[in-house]
Amino acid sequence: MSHDPHSSRARLLAAGRELFARHGYEGTSTAAIARQAGSSESQLVRWFGGKAGLLEAIFEEAWEPLNQRIADETLGMTDARAAVVTILLLVLEAFDRDHETAAVFLFEGRRVRGDELALSKGFLIFLERLGALITAGQENGSLPKELDPSLLRSALVGAAEGMVRDRLVAARMGRGTPLDSVAIRRVFEALISHLG
Known about the structure:
The chain is mainly α. Helices cover 72% and strands 3% of the residues. Helix 5 packs antiparallel against helix 7. The N and C termini lie far apart (40 Å).
């Protein structure tokens, strides 16, 4: 969903993304977001209902084009292994382009609120697509049938998140890391190729 970058809504999204990435959700106040956006807390409430709604909107705004790209890139792919690697690499590419969104995804993506685990709709769509590809691969024999598809999906997503998170933490601490995109791609391809 594209918005005028100068609108109050767009400025609040950008400010929220930057501040959540830098200070975390809990460490960012609505006043700080409004101040950074050159707006007001009442505008934040008007557009998003509050800080939690803003965080959800940041996720949805990032996931919508990424999920569309994943659908476009994997349309018609018959090699499930290649499709799974493609999906994971598209996510990495998106994280490489936007470090703030990557940090928000990785550090704030699964917030526990009370007894609820809040997952964005876009992330659930991503998980569903990845799971469907894994299942298709198991059905056509390109992925092992003896592995539980939901556990395989979890392992692949966890591996991706772990490597990207380590890379972001190392960058924040000023440490070099061998976890560049090429190295991460090699690990994904090795993981997938050694299945079955």
